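Subject: Protein entry, chain in single-letter code together with its fold tokens

Category: Structural biology, sequence-to-fold work with a learned token vocabulary.

Notation: Tokens come from a learned vocabulary of local backbone shapes, not from coordinates.

Start of record: The labelled sequence and token lines come straight after this line.
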Amino acid sequence: MRRFIWIIAILLASCSGKQQDYRKADDALDAGREYINALLQGDFSKAAFYTLPDEKNQSILKELEKSYREKDKEGRQQLRTASININEVKEITANSTQIYYSNSFDKEPHILSVIRQKDTWLVDLGK
């Protein structure tokens, strides 16, 4: 009986929700790259970590997640294996940068705004 209790305790400990430890972005390019990669991988909790935490950004991120989840298995797999193509990084101000990029799956040009807030860089989807 004692052995059974230990086995249950170990199983419960291993199944508990794992805490995500994402590192803060050191610069705009790092934040943008981490965010884009998280989107391509379908890791929306990581994408949210690198996103400015306001209502507008969270709403846009939820729409992006919905769109991702609506893709078929093959479409999601193609996104997960896509590479990021950074075309240009333009510093607007000391606290604001735009990243012009595409990915190897859809090849569509995208612009990502990244801002420095306090001591970290975050993606601003609302710009």
Notes: Residues 8 and 14 are 10 Å apart (CA to CA). The helical segments are 2-15, 28-41, 44-49, 55-70, 73-81. The beta strands are 84-93, 96-103, 110-117, 120-124.
